[in-house]
Queue: 3 jobs
Job 1
Amino acid sequence: MIRAAAALALSGRYAVFGRQAAAGLEAWAAAGDVRLRLEDDGSESARSAALAAALAPGVDLLFGPYGSGPGRAVAATMADRPELVWNHGAAALPRTGARLVDVLGPARSYWRGLPAVLAGEGPVALVRAPGGFGHEVAAGAREALAAAGTLPACEVDLDPADPGSAVAVALSRGARWIAGGGRMEDDLALARAALPAGLRAALVVMGVAVAGRELGSAVAGCIGPVQWDGDASAWPLRLPPGADYPAAQAAAAGLVAERALAAAGSAEPDALWRAARRLRTTTPLGPFAIDEEGRQVAHSPAIVRWEDGPGGPRREVVWRSPHPAA
């Protein structure tokens, strides 16, 4: 039997997605011989780190938290420890010496397809959301635009208390789109300020179903990055009803970790770390490969656009990386 554990946001600000991640891990565990222990970190970074450190010695596979803030705290706490952390929910993690295995695509890759999707649709204002994740997302969007020979209309830092100020700057510079993304609540507030003003939104929150529930018909035309395209038919396990990409990320992390464990032949940390770095595999999330420090190098998120439909707006994939490992 595989012993696995994770501290996840079952309550607090990240709970919408943390509970999805928990459901994904539970689906993976139910499909195999796995004893899974889940603890609630309350969306608190310090608690997540303390729980991870306490859980690590007693399990074969330790899964990371949801959210880049808790993820960075875990990375700091696990620095120079031998145990691996299978990262499914933190897309902007610095390397600290911890043995982090990134299953999801990094934040800088979220908007790799932005120029292709918005070709001919007007100037883009880049909005940097607070925190390391928001800055990485914006930096990736800037790099993608630059690679396509396009400059943003402007770049502006988001004040979560006054999203209208970023909208005003974007409009004054002739932008037709705002692009970036950060915390769910900040993205939604920015969208609520931008959409009535005539701007379209390319934000991280637009990749998940909550955007449609919160914004209704106004979400049509907006775009967002997704780690998983929503096709549940290819999974070797039963994803929970209503699974979104945070659940898929976690389930895929379980599949990848289990394959590395089998290749290593034991849960001894050095052997597992070697096996993880050598592993080349594919899950319904996409291809998996990491570099020597555990960074994901094979998987790039797709982009979806919200389209009007008879049952209301729905997400449709409009871009996939032609070269996943690029």
Job 2
Amino acid sequence: MAWLVGATVAAANAQAGPLPGFALKAQTEHFSFYSRGNQKIDAAKSERYLSQIQSLLGQRVSGRAEYYRYETPQELAAGTGTYAEGVTFARAGQIHSTQDFHAHEIVHLVAGQMGNPGAFFHEGLAVALGNGGRWHGKDVHKLAREAARGSRFTALVAGFARLDADTAYPVAGSFVASLIERHGIAKVSEFFRACSGANTADAFARTFGRTLDQAGEAWGASL
């Protein structure tokens, strides 16, 4: 696909405060919800899920996040510059979504506060948790098999943004789900916190006791 289902992007690209044309529809402890027209918002479900993810990852989101509900990806692109069903500006505390409840993006909101291991791991965690380890209704482990056999793992990680979404997201989701299954979610959170964006490979080796390629080889063999 030519567009992203979810992304974590730099806070510098986010706009501060309510966006033009949006009206406040609801508020909860951790969210202010905005929409245009009569777009629905499931405020209670979003608040409950955020609490679950904060507890799971051991990370709190400070303040009240802004959740902007759009009707179409085209509208979202006009507001954010990214054609997608959802985009999260984690450091600015903003979710932009075409859905009334968007678990994938809420995972980004929380995980984006922990550290920056790069798009592969951010999207992998959001797919593993927010999408329940499925992509378009299919198990990500099954979808990832062909890509895992045909590529060096570090190339998949580094080239995430250049891959077709129907390859990139299942591969990332499958690998991160495997990390969670093998090491536990607390260890994955520890890895995120050890990353600053430029030290992902070193942080991975220190946290999990093996290199990315070694872990990728073991993951591929398990599919």
Job 3
Amino acid sequence: MLTPNRKGLSALPSDLFYSQVVDINYIAGLTWTRQPGLRVLFHGPQDKVNFGLSVEQADQYIGGSGGGGAITLPSALSGMVPTQLDSAGNISGASYLQSPTLAPDIIAKAAFDPSSRLHFEVGGILSSFKTSSLAAPWSHHTRPARG
């Protein structure tokens, strides 16, 4: 949903804004993903104004794919990587959908096409995440006061 468009909010390759290079994955600033989601679009009169809202599965990615280095968590948190955080080895099926996300990502975008030579769009994403550690000391939990 956040990939820039040439026209409206279409997902068709001819309407997306990317270069003519051999591999478009090397262009900085383009966002690509294959995460599950629900997208709702509203096309205004004559397709000159378009609004879109998308709710997508969040991915708690911490690096480690495509030759990039992975982060090193403190030893007390190292057990979270295989089950809660995506370090490029945790992308498949059931484990991907079991990550403890706080809420899905919400993406909003508006596109304006006043003429065939001008396209303007603005968008944003609301994303949050959480992790849980059952190994945390009990001293971190508060107890109700008695009296």
